[in-house]
Amino acid sequence: MSLKGVEKDFKAEWGWTRFMLRGKMFCAFCGEDSDFTLITVKGEPDFNIHIRDMYPDAIIEGYYMNKVHWNSVYPDKGVPYELIRDMCGRGYDLVLHSLPKKTQKEITGE
User: Fold this and answer.
1) What is the pTM of this model?
2) Could you report the per-residue pLDDT of 47-82, keeping only the tens digit for each?
3) Strand ranges for the chain from DSSP E
């Protein structure tokens, strides 16, 4: 929520808390109120493969998402907080840079 322009909502049908930029999701938490907690994050395909290889038991292809562009993380399986934070920042940047230049400037204040 500290990133500029981030919107948060709860998608009841999915049970997901979603983080978006101008309506485009870059991160979601699944099952915050249950034993099943999963963080799903948008990412670059090569980076996604790389970190799945680094943490094969904790990072999987995106749960119910495009398997190339999304990863899902089990945060209780040893993935460093800094990496999860970096992944969220990368997802935010991907969505930000997919928006029109004018919208990007509105969000960043440039």
Assistant:
1) 0.89
2) 999 999 999 999 999 988 889 999 999 988 999 999
3) 6-11, 16-21, 24-30, 38-42, 59-61, 70-73
